[in-house]
Write a structure and sequence with these properties.
This protein has helices at residues 4-7, 14-17, 34-40, 143-156, 161-174, 191-202, 210-217, 221-232, 236-253, 258-264, 270-281, 285-292, and strands spanning 49-56, 70-77, 80-84, 87-91, 95-99, 106-109, 113-120, 137-140, 180-181, 184-186. It is an alpha+beta fold. It has a 6-stranded antiparallel β-sheet with strand order 1-7-2-5-8-9, with helices on one face. It has a 4-stranded antiparallel β-sheet with strand order 6-3-4-10, covered by helices on one side.
Length: 296
Amino acid sequence: MESLLKVWSQDDMPRIVCLTMKSQKISPTGQSSPIRDAVAALSDTAPQITAFGAFFAEGHDTGEHHHDRAQFVHAERGLLQVWTEEGQWSVPPGTAVWVPARVPHRVRAISDADFVSLYIRAPRGGEPVIPVPSRCGVVTVSPLLKHLIVHLKELSAGSDGDRQNRLAAVIADELTELVSADLHLPIPSDRRAARVALAMIDDPSDDRDLAAWGRDVGASGRTLTRHFAAETGLSFSEWRQRCRLFAALEMLSAGKPVTAIALDAGYRSPSAFSAAFTKMFGISPRNYRIASHPDG
């Protein structure tokens, strides 16, 4: 399968392509950035865990890139998305996504976000073994771990290596106790099914069934049904509901009213939307919106 990171550049995927590059922290080409350059410059003798952060304006996209270290992507504030060939991971406050070393990915800011990441190399000598997964995945971040990460970011900008190493040892211990959060929207590997998935991400309210989609992409509804189940682990109806709820995260982070979001996300009523959202994320849409906009 051709990389989905490159499929996005096609003209029929406008929402994935037309990203407003308001933040100047990262180059729009995705080829260079202060953080990426700093991570690449880390030597084997640099601390096992290092933290870097930046402000990402809404719509900011890092471009496709990879690191030689594993990355633990966290938003101190705001909503991020991480994309790889396997699909999309939503990173709301209180969560982070693991990106293994050398995995091509891009990070997109759905709202203004204070981005902070840990960059982790393999252990040497008596250093702790940190259980970095072999594939991307979202985990919950406790308030303690959040504060530790932010503090390490501040220390990483200084020269107190001993203090940084002590704090990193505490973080390493916390990273062994993480709980997974199922915030992955997988993309089918079949190109026809992938076209349906990306079009649904562009317009989650589209209510067509797979037979109707099949006429657009050149496959039968039965074939598409088989590909969604085999390649995402979800039925199409389950996948569509997850797509709509992830879109709702974006709209809530933008401050949109809950009733309008319910309709835009394809739900027949605000109550049906609220029930599905609460079941998925463990918080009601209204409370999530309040938490995303504590200042009003």
